[in-house]
Write a structure and sequence with these properties.
By secondary structure, this protein is of the alpha/beta class. It contains 15 helices and 21 strands. The strands form six sheets. Strands 2-1-3-4-5-6 form a six-stranded parallel beta sheet, sandwiched between helices. A five-stranded mixed beta barrel has the order 17-18-19-21-20. Helix 1 packs across helix 6 (133-143). It is globular.
């Protein structure tokens, strides 16, 4: 069965079917890909918890419902989903009542093909229809047939997912003082290599007041750091209650003006949407973190044009120069695609030149992976994979050197750190995040989780930083 229209309302019988196992129902979610997917996974859990009282587990063998929230940006990530699904088949055979669902971008791209390839999958749903999970589960139990809903109901999901819970009640989206807030869905840029417009739809912004209400609800629970999310987050154009439009710079100003917000981040941004008003906020808004992830993809104008990115290397460098004029210590990170169809050695050298001129703090970089249905997948590509891989390794090695240089320069400095977690390597230590998005481990008490503390960075650490608390008077 495929849902394509408005949200299906549960009947009493469907609600009864949903709640049969409410006492013992456990939910396992595996998330692939970006922070948007992390946010969506939290929303899936909230929807099912509110409807069915489900409890999350980190062990799939304990689960009554297993959900894969997928990413299709790269081919390897997509194939990993099907590989992981294959491992779930044995669990399904031993527990016929187990429900297995596939959501996210692979689901949106492949649709009913997933069920044909893996007939034991019960649910297939897109990023915009995760709020319909209770209805899909009820319909699956009622009909015994796999359910597929990969429609694009714009921002309907934001109107139907549970709102943040009142202060004093555990709110799973927060990780000790920090929370994601999705402000828009989709992308309208149609870069030739990217599947996002086809899997998440075109850009649709949430109303300004809705975003502000969610932020205020989170801060009322003690969240001090907000990260605004969107595929092209700085393209935000949200309707205001008086019928006007709030752009991203206006939204950033409004969120930063809330007294309870101590630090503000956003991702992922697009160079074409870095307006002068947004750049100027780095001079006037101290709460705006000194870290910006600004994907460039290539330093070659010829390749940028083939990618349909809409800017040149010079224009990108101009944006960075303006940012550093108003915020000299800003950390710039980026994305790179190496081996795009037609990339020559000269094109790659242009990318390396850009890396030297900008001085990136870190990057996400990959060899080009053709995605079905995108224009780039049909482009001629004669460069051997070994050549592409060698270029990638050279780029990564140089940016890693730059990253180490920044880390070394932080030695003996005092950083304002949000304490997010217990350290992974030593449970007697805490892990926090600096303003420039570095993780630092240091000795401290669990009572500091969710708080900002001052930490002196110890010299000589280049990867995960180590530090010591600066005692306050």
């Amino acid at each position: 069965m495929v849902y394509r229209g408005k949200i299906h309302r549960l009947t009493d019988r469907e609600i009864g079917n949903l709640q049969v196992s409410s006492v013992t129902t456990k939910l396992y979610i595996k998330t692939y890909g970006c922070q948007m997917n992390e946010y969506d996974s939290e929303k899936m859990a909230d929807v099912l918890r509110a409807c069915d009282g489900m409890e999350q587990t980190d062990k799939p063998e304990e689960a009554d419902i297993i959900l894969f929230n997928t990413c299709s940006i790269r081919e390897k990530a997509e194939e990993k989903v099907f590989s992981d699904l294959g491992r779930m088949r044995a669990l399904k055979q031993s527990n016929p009542n187990l429900l297995i669902g596939v959501g996210g971008c692979v689901a949106s791209q492949e649709g009913e093909v997933i069920v044909k390839r893996a007939p034991y999958v019960d649910l297939v749903f897109g990023p915009q229809t995760l709020h319909r999970l209770p209805q899909l589960i009820a319909a699956r139990r009622e009909s015994g047939k796999s359910q597929v809903d990969i429609s694009f109901p714009e921002i309907e999901k934001f109107d139907h997912v549970p709102k943040p819970v009142p202060s004093g009640v555990e709110w799973t989206q927060t990780t000790h003082g920090t929370a994601f807030v999705s402000i828009m869905e989709g992308c309208s840029k149609y870069c030739t290599f990217c599947v996002v417009p086809y899997t998440r739809g075109e850009e649709v912004s949430r109303p300004f007041a809705d975003v502000m209400r969610e932020v205020e609800s989170l801060t009322a629970q003690g969240v001090g750091e907000i990260t605004l999310l969107g595929q092209n987050v700085n393209a935000y154009q949200g309707e205001t209650e008086d019928g006007d439009t709030a752009d991203f710079a206006f939204l950033v100003q409004a969120v930063a003006a809330l007294p309870a917000v101590q630090r503000l981040r956003y991702t992922t941004s697009h160079p074409r949407e870095m307006s002068q008003r947004l750049i100027d906020l780095y001079a006037t808004t101290p709460k705006l973190a000194s870290h910006l992830h600004l994907p460039v993809q290539s330093g070659s104008d010829r390749i940028l044009a083939a990618m349909k990115r809409g800017y040149t290397a010079l224009e990108y460098k101009s944006i960075v120069r303006k940012l550093r004029t108003v915020r000299p210590d800003i950390s710039i990170t980026s994305d790179f695609i190496i081996g795009f169809p037609g990339e020559t050695e000269a094109d790659f050298e242009a990318t390396m030149k850009l890396v030297e001129e900008v001085g990136f703090d870190a990057s996400f970089s990959f060899v080009f992976s053709p995605r079905p249905g995108t224009p780039a997948a049909e482009m001629a590509d004669e460069t051997p994979y070994e050549t592409k891989l060698a270029r990638l390794h050279r780029l990564q090695a140089r940016i890693h050197e730059m990253e180490q240089r920044v880390s070394a320069a932080m030695g003996d400095s005092v950083q304002r750190v949000l304490v997010e977690n217990i350290s992974r390597k030593n449970e007697l230590e805490l892990a926090g995040r600096t303003e420039n998005n570095r993780v630092v481990n240091f000795a401290g008490s669990p009572g500091m989780l969710g708080r900002y503390v001052d930490v002196r960075i110890l010299p000589g650490t280049l990867h995960t930083l180590r530090g010591e608390l600066v005692l306050q008077p």
